[in-house]
Amino acid sequence: MKSSLYNFFLLTKPRIMVLVLLTGAAGLSLEGSLLARPGYCALVLLALYLVSGSANSLNQYFERDIDALMSRTSRKRPLPTGRLSPRQALVFALVIGVAGVAIFALRFNLLSAALALFAVLFYGIYYTVWLKPRTHLNIVIGGAAGAMAPVIAWAAASGTLSLVPLILFLIIFFWSPPHFWALAIYLKEDYRKARLPMLPLVKGEGATRDQIFYYTLILFAVSLSLIAVRPGLLYAAVSLGLGGLFIWKAGVLRKTGLPGLEKGLFSYSIIYLCALFTALIIEGLV
Questions:
Q1: Are residues 134 and 14 in the same domain?
Q2: pTM
């Protein structure tokens, strides 16, 4: 039983879920109306986990044959290893997805439920089944789903949307391409075996490094725009310092292309996003 529960847990991609919950918590913290009711904040984050976990589980269900071809996933994920059946994965994905959307609809509001449902369908089906196998722009367009957590959380708390959650969305949206393209360079041969049209395979590593650098510049500008809307010294220091370092690292990768730098940039991008949104959470709480 413990083994089965753990495998279902793995379907939700728990490492990715840390970022989802962190960015969702930032949306709740900046919106502020639920901070005096921690139980409601916890319920929003639970519903976020359920809908995001559903999208990730659908992704693994539809990509089980691709995952079996890639060394990064063939020995780790529950479906290619046979620890769960496709039917089990699909039922699990649908159940937790419905549960998450229902929480938003019944306990919060229809706007957050509609946004949550969009995120599940966009990533779990449209991105996975149609977009990812057909275009090298898959990461750019698909990043919209991964950027929805703070928007959904804000909508659940307030019933409305505003400029702040839109900027949070754009930060994650423009963060996604440098993050995933760095990984795509590092795992280029894996993606070749899976016959997925990732940017390094379609346009080459040089063009990919250029795009990583350009998107990092846009990300830096978007992150600073939040200061004009929601001023905060801690966030300003983090966005300036770590954003500048992000640009420097992307620039070195672009200029030298030394093996291993792309993996380092991938790891740093996670630190960057976590630090940025942690700063926002702190500022919303104090």
A1: yes
A2: 0.96
Cα–Cα dist 145/123, whole Å? 6
- Which residues are CB-contacts of 185 (< 8 A; sequence separation ≥ 6)? 200, 205, 208, 209, 262
171 and 105 housed in the same domain: no
Find out whether 63 and 88 touch, Cβ atoms under 8 Å. no
pLDDT attached to residue 4: 86
CATH number at residue 145: 1.10.357
For residue 170, count other CB atoms closer than 10 A to its CB: 18
Q: Is the pLDDT of residue 2 over 70?
A: no
Looking at the structure, do residues 88 and 64 belong to the same domain, yes or no?
yes
- For residue 244, the tally of other CB atoms under 10 A from its CB is 11
pLDDT digits (tens, 9 = 90+) for 143-181: 999 999 999 999 999 999 999 999 999 999 999 999 999
Q: Are residues 169 and 154 in the same domain?
A: no
Residues of the domain holding 58 = 1-159
Task: Give the chain's domain count.
Answer: 2
Alpha helices per DSSP H over the chain: 2-11, 14-31, 38-62, 64-69, 71-74, 86-103, 110-121, 138-146, 149-158, 163-186, 188-194, 199-202, 205-229, 233-256, 261-285
